[in-house]
Amino acid sequence: MTDQSPNGSEFDIIKRYFMPLAAGDKAALGLLDDAAVLDVPQGYKLVVTTDALVAGVHFLENLSPADIAYKVVGVNLSDLAAMGASPRAVFLAAQFPKNTPETWIAAFAQGLGAALSGSGATLLGGDTVTTPGPMAFTLTALGFAPLRKVLTRSGAKVGDDVYVTGTIGDGALGLLCLTGKLPADAFLAKRYARPEARFVFAQALAEHMFASACVDISDGLAADVGHICEASNVAATLEAQRVPLSDSARDLVKADKTLLKTVLTGGDDYELAFTAAPKNASSIEALAVEKGLRVTRIGTILEGAPKTRVLDEIGRPMDLGHGGYVHL
Amino acid sequence: MTDQSPNGSEFDIIKRYFMPLAAGDKAALGLLDDAAVLDVPQGYKLVVTTDALVAGVHFLENLSPADIAYKVVGVNLSDLAAMGASPRAVFLAAQFPKNTPETWIAAFAQGLGAALSGSGATLLGGDTVTTPGPMAFTLTALGFAPLRKVLTRSGAKVGDDVYVTGTIGDGALGLLCLTGKLPADAFLAKRYARPEARFVFAQALAEHMFASACVDISDGLAADVGHICEASNVAATLEAQRVPLSDSARDLVKADKTLLKTVLTGGDDYELAFTAAPKNASSIEALAVEKGLRVTRIGTILEGAPKTRVLDEIGRPMDLGHGGYVHL
């Protein structure tokens, strides 16, 4: 009933594939101790998030090991970004089915290293176990955010503008491409498989205190803006035609208008949605230019019960089903 | 492909059962934000550990929800104890099979609260997802340890004594009782299902700097003392007859001498094994009395290649199979 690893002992797997990722980081204690030991710099808060991803539930089982590693990392670093935190460390609990080929684990570990590189975060520990069920990964990510500058969901004010980074809907459309429900599209597939967390822009946004509230778009644009509304006790109105689309997404929506709903509610974007006072508009625009990231104003915060309305091109509220409120 | 929770939305489950556990702890942001935000006190290191427990692999599936919660918590707080850290926060990623009864989740959450109470740690965040596989829990535990006083596995010195806390083998024997391979025994079953992490004693041990190395006994006494040997590049000799047994364990071993091997290699003890200079012997004895915890000297650290030898009652090395080196 104790740990049994897919091939060889847990110790061997960790030593061979995961320890190199911690190389040079004293905090990991070589991944050989019971726990990692970190310093937290003075003047900073510690920000912690955990996400579990199960094969077939949270990611397509036929993605490459490297794609899965990018997704596991991206989803978690995106949560840190939403709080304006700089990534520092990740801890991975990997559940591998017995007979997972060692080559698969090697490719996954390599992908993990690549996905973390440049983020500031190192793999500092974890657990590798076998499961009779599907492959699953739980990543816990730790970051630091300057005191009194942490972004939260709860600060949105009536009259604030609502912004998003990047383009919306690519992840959900990419999933439809990868499952054969839409024609293959390499750009959209990559946007689904390898989300890029916006922590560099988010850190600057937090540092300058331009934003009043922030969330990462994982459940879908309408639902996640809804999370800001609930936490801030305000309402939001978004204009569908202002929501920024990639060229691939625009072509698909042009050909099939029903896909606009997928874009607005589909999830897996890992872009940021944030609110800011109108007086910060030009500063935010300048920051976006400086960081080389598209940032678009898509709506407004209003008084009222927590609710997100999305208006179509002639100003009528769209029916998004449950997209604005519960998980799909 | 986004989160679907066993009953109702993830949000409902979290709100109803897990949020109350974070009540009053501002760091949790009500479990409603993307991440938790913590202060780390000056003069302390942050200690982090992650353990994944899969039903049928790491715990018996027919344990009560509360027992499973105690086990998930105990295993992780035991890792913090091994480093001399005070528990501060836990993050839980729960994978529930679809159709997990809400009453089960409620009982599990209640057990989680009970297992955490008195530890100093609060549930500050997590993720609740469905899985087509077995139930599984990944807990990440955060603690604080005073600077320069963190216990590690790597400080054992030639000539040091080897100690253990509590009694050894109860967990492994308890598992045999629970699976019908040994007669039912409520004491041993509880020792298996509800490990008590020794963080109070470990904190004092770290604070006074009495120990040179420390590990928690999860893989089995011989294997875990072996981990100290590997990290410290020393050898250890333990005397089987000095290993402290509970009354229940002693009776079983008396009736069947082969069970001594189970005791020495079986794992799931969640007691501490630590090394200390002989000059600290009386201080350690006094500390054990003060904290009301049994502490027993069971062996010595020697020069040589990393290896743990266990001697029988007439001083012959025992054959423990792979028990001293790899997971069972």
The number of helical segments of chain A is 10
What composes the largest sheet of chain A?
A: 6 strands, mixed
What is the subunit organization of this protein? homodimer
Q: Determine the strand fraction of chain A and express it as a percent band.
A: 15-25%
CATH architecture of the largest domain in chain A: Alpha-Beta Complex
Report the order of strands and helices of chain A: HEEHEHEEEHHHEHEHHEHEE
- As residue ranges, the low-confidence spans of chain A are 1-7, 324-328
Q: Please name the fourth-level CATH homologous superfamily of the largest domain in chain A.
A: PurM-like C-terminal domain
From the N-terminal CA to the C-terminal CA of chain A, the straight-line distance is 36 Å
Radius of gyration of chain A: 20 Å
Largest interface: A-B, 80 and 80 residues
Structural class of chain A: alpha+beta
Tell me, rounded to a whole number, the average pLDDT of chain A. Answer: 91
Explain what you see.
2 copies of one chain form a homodimer. Chain A contains 10 helices and 11 strands. In chain A, strand 3, helix 3 (102-116) and strand 4 (122-131) form a beta-alpha-beta unit. Chain A has 2 domains: 10-146, 60s Ribosomal Protein L30, Chain: A (2-Layer Sandwich), CATH 3.30.1330; 161-311, Phosphoribosyl-aminoimidazole Synthetase, Chain A, domain 2. The model of chain A is unreliable at 1-7 and 324-328 (pLDDT under 50). By secondary structure, the first copy, chain A, is of the alpha+beta class. In chain A, the strands form 2 sheets. A 6-stranded mixed beta sheet of chain A has the order 7-9-6-10-8-11. In chain A, strands 2-5-3-4 form a 4-stranded mixed beta sheet. Strand 1 of chain A pairs antiparallel with strand 2 of chain B, so a sheet runs across the interface.
